[in-house]
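User: These chains co-purify. Model them together.
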Amino acid sequence: MIWEILEKAAKENGLVTAFAVVGGVMLVSGVISRKLTLGRVQGSAIAILIGLALAYVGGRMTGGSKGLADLALFSGVGLMGGSMLRDFAIVATAFEVHAEEAKKAGWIGAIALLLGTVLPFIVGVAVAWAFGYRDAVSMTTIGAGAITYIVGPVTGGAIGATSDVMALSIATGVIKAIIVMVATPIAAKFLRLKTPRSAMVFGGLAGTVSGVSAGLAATDRKLVPYGALVATFHTGLGCLLGPSLLFFIVRALT
Amino acid sequence: MIIYGTALLAVCHLLGIIIGDLLGRALGMQTNVGGVGIAMLLLIFARIYLHKSGRLCTTSESGVHYWGAIYIPVVVAMAMQQNVVAALKGGPVALIAAVGSVVLCGLFVSFINRMEPKTETQEEGR
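Assistant: Joint model of the two components:
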């Protein structure tokens, strides 16, 4: 009986439940960070890892595509971590941006953005080619997935890719986002992520708003808005170039 | 009033998304082009303007700061709903393409950031 009441309360108050669940995960992560890693691994990095693990468990239990959010009990997580609140919170971080810093690095951010679109695309196309995908449509779709997991299906849809190639393209983008989330705090020293300018370069090259924002959040919270500012143009630029210029180039080469 | 800050944030967010959509249409695409980035720029300009005219009190500001601070928990919630199962099922093509592009981009990030003018880095480092 108690369980029924608990379940009903959680289902009817999805977003509130999500606040409590995420707060609990953050608390546990903070303790793990201090006690087990002596503060060497940031609490937020651990929280993101736990989140991904829970997403795996949720996906396995329901067979759905939205991780833990597919469990009715945790449906509020879908709202809390959905694009509306995510973008709202990202925009809010802009309040702490020093306009001068952002302006100084504007051009290098734009160059990074262009490189961040073209380089992953080339890698994706090359890997697709190496694995036997020789038609321009499949190669372009997989290459576009290596830009972000939104560019992949948008491009594939526009040029008429098959559904298995689309799935592969999305998987590439999701894996990329997850690697960026997890690896950024580890590689922060090597990437020289210290200044607003460096965060903007990173935001342009690493792409995927989710990967960049989570990776920077786990590295240094102050850098988040600078990286996100550039990274949000990533998907737009990819969707612009993917089904047009990049596709035409691949088609001309095959 | 704290809601003024949150409302300012909301208006910038919506305007950014609308402009991003219009930009997408103008470029002949179905997607939003940089809507969130445009919203961020709008908020930066709005803050500078309101600061200069002294019309932004600290209570109103906290209506924005709260959402900026809730950002990391939102990212954790976002991680909880990634399609991790599908990502792991993608097999070697997806994995190699993803790792390859991350490594290549990482090298470029490192390379470009090493060229950053020294003075700037030192100031930030201290």
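Chain A touches chain B through 112 residues (CB under 8 Å).
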